[in-house]
UniProtKB/TrEMBL annotation:
Keyword terms: Acetylation, Cytoplasm, Fatty acid metabolism, Lipid metabolism, NADP, Oxidoreductase, Phosphoprotein
Encoding gene (name): LOC112259901
Protein name according to UniProt: 15-oxoprostaglandin 13-reductase
InterPro entries from the UniProt entry: ADH-like_C, ADH_N_2, ER, MDR_fam, PTGR1
Database matches in PANTHER family: PROSTAGLANDIN REDUCTASE, PROSTAGLANDIN REDUCTASE 1
Any GO BP: prostaglandin metabolic process
Cellular compartments per GO CC: cytoplasm
Organism (species): Oncorhynchus tshawytscha
CDD domains assigned to the protein according to its UniProt record, in alphabetical order: leukotriene_B4_DH_like
Main location: cytoplasm
Length: 334
């Protein structure tokens, strides 16, 4: 039997997460039965969705939700032989016994020079979120002007790069001058620090005086309220996230955009990436091709050590990361 380290949700979050919300425990993993495999985590992901989903889908005492890249170290399942690598929703665990449900093998031709951790980032769920939000929700077209906020994060930075590949004009909002510089490196036409501008409205108008065809929304709250009036007639808005609201104890209220949306005939649609799961393999290959062609840069913010999962999670929610926030668990992952 293998002893696994796990991080559990000791108590539900009230406001911003604290160390006391988490508890590190040990659990014994049983020997894999017929059809099962034993996984060893190499990289774990920390993502904004974990904050609201923990309230909706977790009970106190449960292992924190999340995705990891893992290596199969024992196998009684021919679909997952020893030594292969998978992406799985195994939660914050170092080892997991699985019957294969929900496991996805890395692309069979995954290049040796591409870090496997990108299967949690631009060549994984965040990359798919960016691609489907742009293509399936916004219907992005060459020549469109796109606004994206939280633009230096895992999803936002990929959104921007795909938009440039598609021939769009791109405006990004982010929360530090270092992140603004990163966006300019990625080819954003305009980028600004929403914290230091004197007026968000004026910053949006200055960046695109004629307005925006599309808005990829990751933040919510006051930013969204200010951005909606800057949309062009028949503009399209993809609601991907609302990170500004995740840690609030008192829900935000108003202003309400109904009249603006009616008069401008705007379309706003929320989405979850799993809606297009049937397209994932083809989409992942497109993302990988862009990576290998040098069209997709994949910045990572790496925290070393499973014991630092809560710190990495809280740091991500505070915006410490540029690009994808991950935790490296295993020496093999270096």
């Amino acid at each position: 039997m293998v002893q696994s380290k796990t991080w559990v949700l000791a108590r539900h979050f009230e406001g911003f997460p604290e160390d006391s919300n988490f508890e590190l425990k040990l659990e014994q993993q049983p020997e894999p039965k017929d059809g099962e495999v034993l996984l060893e985590a190499l990289f774990l992901s920390v993502d904004p969705y974990m904050r609201p989903f923990s309230r909706l889908r977790m009970k106190e005492g449960g292992v924190m939700i999340g995705t990891q890249v893992a290596k199969v170290i024992q196998s009684n399942n021919s679909a997952f032989p020893i030594g292969c690598h998978v992406v799985g929703r195994c939660g914050w665990r170092t080892h997991t016994v699985s019957d294969g449900t929900g496991l996805t093998r890395l692309l069979s031709d995954w290049p040796q020079e591409v870090p496997m951790s990108l299967a949690l980032g631009a060549i994984g769920m965040p990359g798919l979120t960016a691609l489907y939000g742009l293509e399936e929700v916004l219907g992005l077209q060459a020549g469109d002007t796109l606004l994206v906020n939280a633009a230096a994060g895992a999803v936002g930075s990929t959104v921007g790069q795909i938009a440039k590949i598609k021939g769009c004009r791109l405006v990004g909002s982010t929360g530090s001058d270092a992140k603004v510089a990163f966006l300019k490196e990625l080819g954003f036409d305009e980028a600004f620090n929403y914290i230091t501008v004197s007026s968000l409205e004026e910053a949006l108008k200055s960046a695109s005086p004629d307005g925006y065809h599309c808005f990829f929304e990751n933040v919510g709250g006051p930013f969204c309220s200010v951005a909606i009036p800057q949309m062009k007639e028949f503009g399209r808005i993809a609601l991907c996230g609302g990170i500004s609201t995740y840690n609030e104890t008192i829900p935000q209220t108003g202003p309400y955009p109904h009249l603006t949306m009616i008069f401008k005939q705007l379309k706003m649609e929320g989405f979850l990436v799993g809606r297009w799961e049937h397209k994932n393999q083809e989409a992942l290959r497109r993302l990988m091709a862009w990576k290998r062609e040098g069209k997709l840069q994949c910045r990572e913010h790496v925290t070393q050590g499973f014991e630092n999962m809560p710190a990495a999670f809280m740091g991500m929610l505070q915006g410490e990361n540029i690009g994808k926030a991950i935790v490296r668990v295993s020496i093999e992952a270096i």
